[in-house]
Amino acid sequence: MSKRHKFETGMSREIESHLEQATQDYIARGLPPEEARLRARREFGPIDLAKEELRDTRRLRWFADFLRDARFTLRTWRRNPAFAAGVVAVLALGMGSATALFSVLDRILFRPLPYADPDRLVSFGEVIPTAGVVSPLEMMRDRAYFQFWKPAPEPFQSVTSILGRGAPCDLTEERPERLSCARVESNFFDVLGVPVLLGRNFTAEEDRKGAPPAAIITHALWQRRFGGDPAAAGKMLQIDGNPVRVVGVLPPGFESPIGEPDLFLPQQLRPFDPNQNSTRFFTTVGRLKPGVTAPQATAAIAPLIDAGAELVPQFGGPIKARVRNLRDLQVGDASRTAWLVLAASGVFLLMVCVNATGLLLARIAARSREFEMRAALGAGRARLARLAFAESILFAISAGGLGVCFSRGLLEVFLRLAPKSIPEIEHASLDLRVFAVAAVLSLVCGVAIGLWPALSSWRAGSIGAGSRSTAGLRPRARFVLISTQIALTVALLGSSGLLLHSLLNLVRVPLGFQSEQTLTMAITLNPANYPDPQRQTALFEQVLARIQAAPGTIAASWSNASPLGTYIITTGFPVDGAAASREAGLLRIRYATPGYVETFRIPVVKGRAFLEADRDGPPVAILS
Amino acid sequence: MPRHSDPAPSRDAALLQGTLDLLILRIVALEPLHGYGIVRRIEQMSGEALQIRQGSLYPALYRMEQRGLLTAGWKTNDSGKEAKYYRLTKAGRQALAEETEGWKRLRTAIDLVLEGHLPGYEEV
To answer: Which CATH number does the domain housing residue B45 bear?
Structure first.
C-alpha cells in the first residue's frame, strides 16, 4: 500500500516538474505565463491517460516477471527432472492427505449445519446418571417436557422434539425396503427452519392421537421411491402394513440433528396421558432467542430441569442440565478426535514443507555459482530472491494440483476403510469449498517453503563476483532444518504410537465374556406379519432350534441385546422390601433366553444360569 | 513550433517503440537528464525532425527503469527546481551498444534493399 502510494506521488511529482519546466521554457521564449502554462499542458496531452499508462507498466511487470521466472524455472526442471519430480511428489503427498482429511473433517468441524440460523439452535435436556454410566445424550422425559417446556419458556423462542434416533420400519409394498422412521413433533421442521421442498409441513392436527397417518420423506427416499416425481406429495406409502400419506418432501442435503431417518412421522403423543406408566425419552431442540449464549441458557433452564426431576423422583443420582449446539449433538465426541487428526495432518504438512525447504536450499547451494554470476551481471538481489520464490510457488502450485488428484484417491480409500461411526463421512466429497482450502494451502506452502530459499539467494546475490563463499545451506541452517524435521517426526510418531497403544489396551480389556468364536445377528420383526407375542415367540424358537441344530454350534440364545450393546433402562424397584427405589437408581436390563450365559461363556460367580424351567416359572434374574 | 498534442497514430507508435528506447539510451548516455530534457534534446539533436509524444515518453522511461537499463533520482537543477534525473546503468550501457549495433545492421539491410538492384530488372 505504501509502495503504491510512493509510486503515485512520485509519478505526479514528475509530471508536475515536467509541466513546470516546459512552462518556464515558453516564458523564456516570451510567452505570457498564463499562455505558457496552457501550452505546456496541451503538449503533454491528457495527464490521466499518461498516468494510467504508467500504472500499467508497473502492474504488467509484476505478472510478466513471474511468467518469465516461471518459464525459466520450468526449463531448469527439464534439465533436472528427478529433483523437480521429487519435490513435487513430496509436497503433493502432504497436501493431498491434508486435503482429503479436511474434506472428511470439514463436515464434523466447520461446515454450518443446513438449518436457518443454526447458531441459535441447541439441544437441551437432562443428563441422567445411569447406574454408574453417564448417558452420552441429554434427554427429556415426556412428562417434564409437556409440563414445562412445551410453552417454550425463556430463553427459548421455540422448542420441538424428536423421539430417539429413528426406529427401523418397513416399506411393505413392491420393492420392500427397511427404512428408519423418526417420530417428531409437528413443528419440528419449523423450529429447524427447514422448508419442505414439495408438499407441506405437518399440521398440529396430524400430531393428535388418532389422526390419519402422515409422513414427510427425505429427498433421497423421494428419488428412490418416486423417481423425483413432483406429484409424490399426497401419494400413499405402506409402512409396516399401514397406509401412510406422504404430505411433504425435504430438500436435498437435509440432516436430522440425530440419527439418519428416511421418513418422519408425527409423534401423536398428545393429548398426553399423565397416568401412563412408561416414560419416553425425547431429544429436545430449542431455538434460542437472539443473543443468548449456551452457558446463559444452561443457567436459565437449570431450575426447570430440577422441577422436572421432582416429577419422577426415581433417579439414583443428581440430574444435570445441559445445553449444547446441534453440531455437538450430531457428531458427539467425534469433534475432539477430529481436531486431533486435523492437527496431526497439519504437523505432517509442516514436516513435508520443512523437507521441501531443505531440498530447495540444497539446490540453491548447488546453484550458488549461477546466482553469483547473475549478480555479477547486474541482477538485483530482489530479482534473484524473486526467482527463487517463483520456483517455490511453482512447486506448490504443481504439487497442489497433483495433491488434489491424489486426495481424490485417498478419499476413496478413507471412505472404504472408515467405520460407519464417523458422523457424516458418507457425505465427504471434494467440492469447491475443499478446493478453495487446497488452493490456499498450496499458496501458503509455496510461501512457506520459498521464504528461506529466497532469503538465501538474496544473500547469494549480495556476495560479489569472485567470492568463494557458499550461500544457501550453512552448517547452522542445516542443523536447524534437520533438527526441526526430526523433532516433528518424533512428535508425530510418538503421538500416533500412544494412540495405537490405547487402542491396543481397548482391545485387550477383559470384557467379562468371550467374544472369540461367537457370532451375533439381529432381526427386527415387522409388526404387520408378527402382530402378537405368540407368533413372535414361535419364530424366535424356530430360528433358535435351527441354529442349535446346525453343525458346529455349541450354544445359542436370544436376547434383546448383546453384551456391550443396547439395554432397556428402568427405574429401580424395591428388592424384597429393602430400601426405597430412589436408592436403587436406574437399572439397565436385558432379557435373555436360557443359554445366554453359556453362549457368551460368562462366568457365573454365584447361583446358577437360566434354565428352561424358568420360562414358565416365577420371574428370575441374574445380577451383574 | 508545431507539435502533436493528440496521441500519435498507432502505426507511428509501433514503429517508434523500439527506436524511442534507443534514442533515450543514447541521450541519457551523454549525461543524466530529466524527462522534459530528454524530449528537448531529441528534438534539438534531430534538427526538430523527431517529435516525441510526451505521453509516450514516460511509459518508456518507466519500463527501461524497471528493466534495469536506467536508474532515476530526484535532483535540484540549475534553476533551483527539483526534477527526476535518469542515468544509464551498466546494463543500460550494454543495451545501448547492442541496440546501436542492431540498428546499424537494420539500416544497412534496409539500405541494401532500397538501393540495390536485381540483375535483369530496370530501375523504376
So the answer is: 1.10.10.10
Nearest to A14 among B3, B37, B84 (CB): B84
A296 touches chain B (CB under 8 A): no
| Overall pTM surpassing 0.80 (yes/no) | no
Verify that A304 and A338 share a domain, yes or no.
no
Residue A558, domain extent:
533-615
Interface test with A, best of B3, B44, B58 (most A CBs within 10 A): B58
CA distances (Å), origin A528, targets A170, A237, A339, B8, B79: 10, 14, 46, 92, 108
- HSE (side-chain half, CA atoms, 13 Å) at A125: 28
Virtual torsion, Cα A372, A374, A380, A385, nearest 10 deg: -70
Instruction: Look at residue A343 and tell me if it is in a domain.
Output: yes
Within a domain: A68: no
- With beta carbons less than 8 A apart as the criterion, state whether A303 and A320 touch: no
Could you tell me if the ipTM is greater than 0.90? no
Which of B53, B68, B81 shows the shortest C-beta gap to A21?
B81
Of the partner residues B40, B58, B81, the one whose CB lies closest to the CB of residue A54: B58
Number of domains in chain B: 1
* A288 and A382 fall within a common domain: no
Which residue of chain A is at minimal alpha-carbon distance from B63?
A: A57
- Both A277 and A350 in a single domain? no
Q: Is A369 helix (H, G, I), strand (E, B) or coil?
A: helix
Domain count, chain A: 4
Tell me whether B10 touches chain A (CB under 8 Å): no
Q: A572 and A481: one domain?
A: no
Strand partners, B74: B84
B29-66 exposure pattern, b = at least 16 Cβ within 10 A, e = fewer: beebbbbbbbbbbbbeeeeeeebbbbbbbbbbbbbbbb
- Would you call A42 and B66 a contact, using CB atoms and an 8 Å cutoff? no
Q: How far is CA A472 from CA A71, A384, A606, in A?
A: 23, 13, 77
What are the φ and ψ backbone dihedral angles of A305, each rounded to 5 degrees? -65, -45
Mean pLDDT by 10 residues, chain A (624 residues): 79 88 88 89 83 79 78 86 87 87 80 81 76 62 76 80 81 83 87 86 83 87 86 84 88 83 84 69 83 79 74 61 77 74 84 83 76 71 77 86 87 75 63 83 82 72 45 64 80 79 72 76 76 82 85 80 63 47 56 78 77 74 73
Domain extent for B75:
10-113
In whole angstroms, give the CA distance from residue A315 to residue A306: 12
Nearest to A202 by CA among A272, A266, A267, A263: A266
Q: Do B83 and A42 touch (CB under 8 A)?
A: no
A543 with A572, same domain: the answer is yes
